[in-house]
Amino acid sequence: MNNQVLRVERKINADAKRLFRAWLNAEDFSRWFLSGELIGIESVTLEPRPGGKFLINMSLNGEILPHTGEYIKIEEPHTLIFTWRSHATENRDTLVTVTFTELSNEKSENSEVSLKHPTTLITLVHEMLSDEIQIKNHNHGWTSILEGLNKWCE
User: Fold this and answer.
1) CA distances from 50 to 17, 71, 81, 83 (A)
2) Distance of CA 74 to the CA centre of its chain
3) d(CA 53, CA 44)
4) pLDDT per position in the chain (154 positions), as tens?
5) Structural domain tally of the chain?
6) CA-CA distance, 49 to 112, in Å (whole number)?
7) Where are the coiled-coil regions (predicted)?
C-alpha cells in the first residue's frame, strides 16, 4: 500500500481560536463543512476529546455518505489530529492533521500600526491515502471545505 500524502493550505481572515473551535462545535461545523456544491450535510455528531469519535453524514443525490473518525490529539488552538474513514478511502482509516498558525498582522503602508485583522494559515495534511485518485478526490473535497470555512467566517 502506498502512503500518499495530501497537503492543502488556506489563509483565512479570522483568529486561530475561532477557526479551531469551528471544527469542534457540531452546530457551527454543519454550516461550513461542505466538500462540494452538490454535497449536503445530513447530520453531524462530534465528541471533541482525545479518543472521542465523530460521524459526519454527507448527502449526495439522495444517498447518505457516512464519514467517521476518532480524535487523536486536540491542542487548542494549534493542532487537531484525527482518523478519517469514508467511502472515498475505501472504508480504511487514514490520518488528518490540521494546524492553525496565526500570521502576524500586516502593517499598513502609511503607518507602523498593525491592522486589526487577524489572519490564520490553516494547513491540512491527509496521510495514508492509497493512490492518486484518492489524492485528487480529497484535494477537491478539502479545498472546498476550507473555502466553506472561509465563507462562514466572512
Assistant:
1) 18, 5, 9, 11
2) 13
3) 11
4) 568 999 999 999 999 999 999 999 999 999 999 877 788 999 999 999 999 999 999 999 999 999 999 999 999 999 999 999 999 999 999 999 999 999 976 554 555 555 567 999 999 999 999 999 999 999 999 999 999 999 999 8
5) 1
6) 41
7) none
SS3 content of the chain, % helix, strand, coil (to 5): 25, 45, 30
Total residues found in the chain within this entry: 154
Domain that holds residue 123: 4-107+116-153
Task: Say if CB 136 and CB 144 are below 8 A apart.
Answer: no
Q: Which amino acid is at 76?
A: E
Yes or no: say if 79 and 97 are a contact pair by the CB < 8 Å rule. Answer: yes
For the domain that residue 52 is a member of, what is the CATH number? Answer: 3.30.530.20
143 is written with which cell numbers? 479545498
